[in-house]
Amino acid sequence: MTLSKSTLSAAGRPLWVAAGAVSIGIGAIGATLPILPTTPFVILGAFCFAHGSPRLALALEQHRVFGPIIADWRAHRAIAPRYKVIAHLMMGAALLVSLLAGVSTTVLTVQAICLACASAYILSRPSGGETAQKPDRGAVLARPKRPKGA
What is the distance in angstroms between the CA of the first residue and the CA of the last residue of the chain? Predict the structure, then answer.
């Protein structure tokens, strides 16, 4: 039996929605606890919802907290300086908690390497613009305007 592309995409939509929900859940945990960074999980959630549920994707894009993060990422592939600082503070706090908890040296080493890689990626992204500083629902969905001569 051969499945058409539309059948496969319809069958895969619940998986995309589930992956998006898990990503947003982890991102929400990261927003409140110094364990995980929020921004990468929000961006991943937006990607998953865009493939699985346009309604959920739109709701996420219009969210007062997560919407500006997504808008900056889509418009500039950027992470706002505020979120870069928060991510680094959270990663540092997570490493400190592990250190104070007496986690083994091997686990601390692996954690430090993973956090260093995450930090390098975050720092390699351009800093976001006005969208991250002043949320604007229209900016979340609007496409960048082309110059008139282009």
Answer: 48
What integer is the mean pLDDT of 13-36?
85
State pLDDT tens for residues 48-86.
Answer: 999 998 899 899 889 888 888 888 888 888 888 888 888
**DSSP string computed for 44-76:** HHHHHHHHH-HHHHHHHHT-TTHHHHHHHHHHH
Q: pLDDT at position 118, please?
A: 86
Which amino acid, one-letter code, is at 135? P
Query: For the chain, how long is the longest CA-to-CA vector?
Result: 62
Interatomic CA distance for residues 79 and 127, integer angstroms: 5
pLDDT bin (cut points 50, 70, 90) of residue 35 is low
| Interval 104-109 mean pLDDT | 92
Amino acid letter, 24: I
- 127 secondary structure, DSSP code: B
Report which of 13, 75, 23 is spatially closest to residue 50, judged by C-alpha positions.
13
Tell me how far apart the alpha carbons of residues 118 and 128 are, in angstroms, rounded to a whole number.
18
